[in-house]
Design brief:
Thioesterase family protein (chains A, B, C, D); 8 strands; homotetramer; Thiol Ester Dehydrase, Chain A; ACOT13 (chains A, B, C, D); 6-stranded antiparallel sheet; alpha+beta; 35% helix; 154 residues; fatty acyl-CoA hydrolase activity (chains A, B, C, D); two-stranded antiparallel sheet; 37% strand; HotDog_dom_sf (chains A, B, C, D)
């Protein structure tokens, strides 16, 4: 079960990431789902995101961006889920310190496709630092990239 | 000394990366210098690249993109430099297989600034695979991020 | 189905890694299983492998060693599996160039336990370079570490 | 200038790492220097550390171990250096939570040599998390490996 405070902060964060981060708007990044169990972030292919014009392949920087956003949102959802009695102010405070410490990206296959979906899961969960693994697939289920990111969460 | 073929391929690559990669145009990515000794890639801050509106900080995905581009260009320059008697067709062929296998980014400080410059150096050089370290600084010399990337070069 | 050549080379490799690598003997590293589908490598806890005497925890360097060995063996099994008509000499030749290019280790939990088992799976498979993800668990199924490694396979 | 408390804790840590970590004794790991500016850790080649008997090359797991130890000691020295008025008990407490979160190793050249020396420098310094870059050279100055590690320091 999700508490009202948990639900509220996740909605606020989804709204910020969806509508108020200029670079997400530039890419057309879209938070499809964001709840206590994780996140689904989508980018639709468009000509401006292409890195290789001969093969119409997504630029690796878009992949990196999507994976990083997924990682940050996933570890934050994990933090929100870790306690039932958060005050909303505490979580808003935590959000200001959320940041990527390091990230590894493994490019598995060329980024071909129409819709790219990123998902993640927390592999190490802490009060200060969490580590997340992320995946990027296209609309046909082709696995395009893996990510592993270490995030400051407090 | 740089041979005519080396000079020509590096100019072709700089032209492609500067003018014909849609995602580079979207970001305003600019190849300031590209020769046999390496590359200098610049992005000027603009509102669309912001990741954190409260603090006007560059999105981490822009940092990742810049570092990845620097890495690819640096290892390719290293390949070009590794032989004096390349045929231009061989190098053009190699360019089609140039790709990032994996990359680690270390975010050191918030991406504040007006002009972000990426540079790199090859740490492992091979005929098939090369590894590069990359750095991102702002116009005041503040060190914002490190990268380490493994690239397919043939 | 596994061909006779595939079976033979995997046995040879398992024998080398099990019996003829001095550092594996020093650690007591044991190849429990090695076939075309992958590998299971085990290290039994012993006092010499401890990194933290107050808590009797496995040294992180032992974890790194185990994950690296698992990664190398896993990508080599993948290479062996990729063709039915290898000649044994070709695979023996490939073995001489097998090597780790880079590796990331994520330490998830302290290395407590009696028996540590490493397993892996190939995430990017190539004729020259393969990428593998590795895991380390103790005898109770506690997940202690993840690895991601990029290997030269030819 | 180094305070008496700083000097004392660094000596204590060097003594523990040099003499009381069983796995360090097994490898013959030796802390040559440890002060507020960093660390120099040495391993002498011996037959038990070999990974490749045909070429007498150091096992990659020994390299990983050495780099990880260097990283931990370097970030701890950075923490010690960050304040002049530490109490020894605070630093001893911090030592108990010192741990590797993640590490990347780049293997640059085969580990040939007689004496392997690891050094490091902090690239991101924090009260909770620090990031370090490490290097391994042999006695001839050949650069064998790079490391990048993220450590919990509090």
């Amino acid at each position: 079960m999700t508490t009202a405070v948990q639900q509220k902060i996740l909605q606020q964060v989804a709204d910020i990431f969806d509508n108020h981060v200029p670079f997400h708007n530039l890419l057309g990044l879209d938070i499809k789902r964001y709840d206590i169990n994780g996140v689904e972030v989508v980018i639709n292919m468009k000509p401006e995101l292409i890195g290789n014009i001969h093969h119409n392949i997504l630029h690796g920087g878009v992949t990196a961006t999507l994976l990083d956003v997924v990682g940050g949102l996933t570890v934050f959802a994990g933090l929100v889920a870790s306690k039932d009695d958060w005050k909303i102010e505490e979580l808003q405070q935590r959000l200001t310190t959320l940041g990527t410490i390091d990230m590894r990206i493994d490019y598995l296959r060329p980024g071909r496709g129409e819709v790219f979906t990123g998902t993640g899961s927390v592999i190490r969960s802490g009060n200060r630092v969490s580590v997340c693994r992320m995946e990027l697939h296209n609309e046909q289920g082709t696995h395009i990239a893996f990510g592993t990111g270490t995030y400051m969460v407090g």
